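forwarding from the other thread:

> can someone predict this with flavin-adenine dinucleotide?

sure thing
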Amino acid sequence: MRKTLLILLIVVILTQIMTGFSLTQGLQENIEQEDIDRNEEFLKEVEWHGEYDVIVAGYGGAGATASIEAADKGAKVLLVEKAPKGEEGGNTRFAGQGVLSIDKEDIDKGIEYFKHLRGKFNTPSDEMIRAYLEVGSENYSWLKYLGAENITVSPFQEYDYPGGEVMDSMLIDGEAWTSSLYRRLQDAVEERSDSIDLWYESPAVGLIQDPKTKIVHGVKVENKGNILNIRAKYGVVLCTGGFENNQQMIQDYLQLPYAYSKAARYNTGDGIKMAMEVGANLWHMSNIAGPDLNVLNPETNTTFAYAIQGRKDILSTGFATQNVIFVGADGTRFTDESVLPNHGHVDFHGSWRQMPLSLPAFAIFDETARLSQAVYPSWSEGNLEEIEKGLIIKADTIKELAEKIGVHPVNLQRQIREYNSYCRNKKDPMFGRAKDTLKAINKAPYYAMELVPSFTNTQGGPERNEKGQVIDVRGNVIPHLYSAGELGSMFSGIYQGTGNLGECVIFGRISGRNAAKNKDTVITESVMVDREPVIPSWQEAEEIVLQSGEFAGEDRGIGGPIKVKVNMKNDKITDIEVVYHNETKGVSTNAIDTIISSIIENQTTEVDAVSGATVTSKALMNAVKNALEKTE
Ligand SMILES: Cc1cc2nc3c(=O)[nH]c(=O)nc-3n(C[C@H](O)[C@H](O)[C@H](O)COP(=O)(O)OP(=O)(O)OC[C@H]3O[C@@H](n4cnc5c(N)ncnc54)[C@H](O)[C@@H]3O)c2cc1C
């Protein structure tokens, strides 16, 4: 008997060797065939309203990239966006636009650097880091392929770790804060309108998963109150950003009672919840690119600009380096106001940790500081309007100020006396604030502004592997589900600036490409035979109606198109009306009013841009120029 079994085993092994076929492979194929049979049943159970090869949720940098890549691999793509038309683009649109880049021959050094950024965290794996940097080394050529003409590349290393010297940052058109990357991606999506359908005001609200096979077959999309079941034959890519605007998730995951985004308004953690519903494992949930301290804009529920902490530069207005200190709930200082943390992280005894905060927090300053500069570029001269609006609280004495903001007066008085003594001695023994920024707080009246923790973005979300596939709580791939961008970013420890936009391009490409590739493992017959696809709807910008003497013009600002109507009489510009724009409230409204008055007064579009709103100013000037060209 044993002899017979042995002979049988040898025959099986020889057969495998000769045919290149393995028992496990055969088993796998049987299972897949079974799965397909089962999912055929499942597909019949769902009432479908539309069908695509790939569905991408979220039209930020990651979603745009995934859609482009899937379309270029031959897929018919549906890109669904939650925001109204003109407000899409999440964080990507408002970001600094620096994109990570690395030369192919430097990848090993880059891996060394990224392992230092990972520190003692277990993730991302070495394979993940390699995949990220290998595809990242193509970022430059891919943006060129998309038609970006003028790309500047400069060295950029956020942390002084070995290998970091090979990291580069790319900017399209050489300027930060101009939305240049997002515009290029938007153009590329529009250029592919034959293969990418784009729906606005259509949030993804759930995934359609076969409960037996776990294959994700589609997305539930909400449009005008209706839930539409849209099939994705080959794959779904979640690119819905983080949970920057979900205060409950901020409390649950960040150990902060509140914190505010600097930009994205529609990122409320939807992708995280949808992924959880289909069994995804979450990672990096407590990691954010932040916090630093800023003033909250009550109109937008985001902060006014990037930062006031640290020296004046491309990121900070530098206000905190004037006669200003930050104090916590007990009226004492808790940080070095002259240094902007590295994406919210400070060197804590040789280890980079999120900046510890005391909340509520306040900036305390005096009359000299008030007159020194506008706190934010969009604020009024001398910050007078903001005092009137209640964003700045004023008092004649420190004691009175402390009482107004609910801080212990004795503590605050003592803290200011102590800080002023550091200014006299040119040394801050508490936090080592830079000598030249030690400016005494001694000229009444005194002021306080409430500061809130702010951050550029969250990093957490569903775990993904180096193929962009979403992983479940047991470590298995969730079939046909992918992700990209800051939703489940691979950054676990400290973060290399440019790495998030880098990740949009890198994982947008990986996931878009892989989602488009699953053709062999699915039923390819349409589920829409005898069914009419549902046509969604959203608000388009109103048509501009022109009277005689009026001319329409258009250009693109940071928030999308700026459309103007210019009224001409006897060759003179008599009126300019901005009929459509989506620029940031406050900064843009100031700029728009100023530029319009300036153009009319000087009868030229060559006027000075408003500081802090350069892109809006230039776009408005160009839109007027565009209208004037039509008068010729
Ligand atoms: C001020 C600022 C400056 C920054 N500067 C840089 C920088 O220079 N370099 C860098 O690398 N990173 C930078 N970042 C970080 C970077 O911008 C983001 O991490 C990155 O843009 C995230 O891209 P994303 O596509 O993943 O998400 P987002 O760009 O935020 O896009 C998400 C999209 O999904 C949509 N959405 C949300 N929910 C749904 C839903 N349920 N269904 C459909 N759509 C949905 C949103 O409306 C949005 O359009 C900056 C961030 C900020 C705020």
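The first helix runs from residue 2 to 19. thats all i got for now
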